[in-house]
């Protein structure tokens, strides 16, 4: 698998691997992982871009769309557990390409939505299954097995595709939204996913033919039941639940919040793109940091920053502060993603890396659905997001405490 060629974290060699070395060890897998998360990550947040105009066009309140997103998150989360289990046993080619095909059908058909049940079915179920299959879980397992001691660097490079995809795809879709409307946004997303499926299958055919795409045999580590019997398992679940709750509250509601404060539509739409750009910096910093010091300290730093930015947005909602909030949150947005498989590997071993990582990510996404829904309900109840921001601040303090305990015990 190439692990023997990698220097350990304490070898004294230059910490960041050169591009040539990365490509030699697993360049094709890294490129595929980046592409998958570029498209999957960018497309996942298209609903946040169209939340306000779609609700107004169909005469729906935001709580209804929040419920659609909550169903999407739960379905995606359950899919990730199944995909994680498959990733422990099978090569990723068919999982990922099949996921793109399913995603194309679900998100593309959303352009014809006229009734709530259609949104629940197409976005909440069909697109959710496809998007769960092209997620961090199979990509993270593939890269962690390939890059061993440098898995943090490899995962952070691939996951930076989420940030770049959010920047590029949502910037383009913001123009589509302004020029053509929200229905065309879904059509474009469907087309992007449809084109990705055969390209991915073609790229991974070489990997599978060489045998490198097959997962490694089971290694040392805990069973799922043994892991679930430990306190650190539930602490990790709690941490990622808080992370997901906040992530999807912000990604779903930040554009609507900015529009409520009077920002122009194009600028408000590009807030998600700004978050994606900042996310590139955060994720590329946290991967190498985790290889050097373990995953707990990068996670701790992310939530210290979140305490500051949620406190700031409660004090002022000026256009400048909203932009600072989006960029500041973006620095933390993808940062914990490459840490998931590293936390699982370090705490519970690699025997069930995909399954346990899928369970952690499931918790993240179910909580994310609640964050989107509860944020919408709080807005509909109060007419603003102030109470929701106070809740996010309190949760940031709690998550900081959890990660500090992990760091002290490392």
The top level CATH class name: Mainly Alpha
Structural class: mainly alpha
If you consult CATH, what is the topology? Answer: Growth Hormone, Chain: A
Query: How many helix segments?
Result: 17
The pLDDT mean sits at 83
Biggest pleated-sheet summary: none
Unreliable stretches (pLDDT < 50, length at least 5) are 1-17
Please state the second-level CATH architecture.
Answer: Up-down Bundle
| CATH level-four homologous superfamily name | MFS general substrate transporter like domains
Q: Would you kindly provide a written description of the structure presented here, covering whatever features stand out?
A:
Helix content is 81%, strand content 0%. The two termini are 27 Å apart. With 410 residues, it is mostly helical. The chain has helices at residues 19-44, 46-58, 62-87, 93-109, 116-133, 136-147, 151-179, 182-209, 224-228, 231-260, 265-269, 271-293, 296-315, 319-333, 339-348, 353-382, 386-409. The chain has a single domain, classed as MFS general substrate transporter like domains (Growth Hormone, Chain: A), CATH 1.20.1250.
SSE blueprint:
Elements: H1 19-44, H2 46-58, H3 62-87, H4 93-109, H5 116-133, H6 136-147, H7 151-179, H8 182-209, H9 224-228, H10 231-260, H11 265-269, H12 271-293, H13 296-315, H14 319-333, H15 339-348, H16 353-382, H17 386-409
Helix pairs in contact: 1-6, 1-7, 1-8, 2-8, 2-10, 3-5, 3-6, 3-16, 4-5, 4-8, 6-7, 6-16, 7-8, 7-12, 10-14, 10-16, 10-17, 12-13, 12-14, 13-14, 13-17, 15-16
């Amino acid at each position: 698998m190439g692990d023997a060629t990698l220097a350990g974290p304490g070898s004294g060699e230059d910490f960041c691997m050169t591009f040539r070395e990365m490509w030699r060890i697993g360049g094709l897998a890294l490129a595929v992982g980046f592409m998958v998360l570029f498209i999957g990550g960018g497309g996942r947040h298209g609903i946040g871009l169209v939340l306000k105009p779609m609700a107004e066009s169909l005469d729906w309140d935001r709580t209804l769309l929040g419920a659609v997103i909550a169903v999407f998150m739960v379905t995606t989360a359950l899919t990730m557990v199944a995909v994680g289990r498959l990733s422990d046993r099978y090569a990723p080619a068919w999982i990922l390409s099949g996921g793109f095909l399913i995603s194309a059908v679900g998100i593309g058909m959303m352009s014809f939505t006229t009734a709530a049940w259609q949104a629940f079915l197409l976005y909440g179920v069909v697109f959710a299954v496809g998007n769960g299959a092209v997620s961090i879980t199979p990509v993270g397992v593939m890269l962690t097995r390939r890059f061993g001691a440098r898995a943090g660097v490899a995962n952070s490079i691939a996951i930076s595709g989420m940030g770049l995809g959010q920047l590029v795809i949502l910037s383009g879709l913001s123009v589509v939204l302004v020029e053509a409307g929200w229905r065309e946004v879904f059509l474009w997303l469907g087309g992007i996913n449809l084109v990705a499926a055969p390209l991915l299958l073609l790229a991974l055919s070489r990997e599978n033919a060489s045998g490198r795409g097959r997962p490694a045999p089971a290694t040392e580590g805990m069973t799922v039941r043994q892991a679930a019997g430990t306190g650190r398992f539930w602490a990790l679940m709690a941490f990622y639940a808080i992370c997901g709750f906040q992530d999807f509250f912000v990604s779903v509601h930040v554009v609507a919040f900015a529009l409520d404060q009077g920002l122009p539509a194009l600028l408000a739409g590009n807030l998600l793109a700004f978050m994606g750009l900042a996310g590139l910096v955060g994720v590329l910093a946290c991967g190498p940091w985790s290889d050097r010091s373990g995953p707990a300290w990068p996670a701790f730093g992310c939530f210290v920053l979140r305490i500051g930015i949620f406190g700031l947005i409660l004090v002022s909602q000026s256009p400048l502060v909203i932009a600072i909030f989006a960029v500041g949150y973006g620095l933390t947005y993808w940062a914990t993603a490459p840490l998931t498989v590293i936390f699982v590997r370090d705490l519970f071993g690699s025997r069930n890396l995909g399954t346990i990582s899928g369970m952690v990510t499931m918790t993240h996404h179910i909580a994310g659905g609640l964050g989107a829904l509860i944020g919408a309900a709080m807005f509909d109840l109060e007419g603003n997001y102030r109470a929701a921001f106070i809740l996010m601040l309190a949760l940031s303090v709690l998550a900081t405490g959890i990660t500090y305990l992990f760091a002290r015990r490392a």
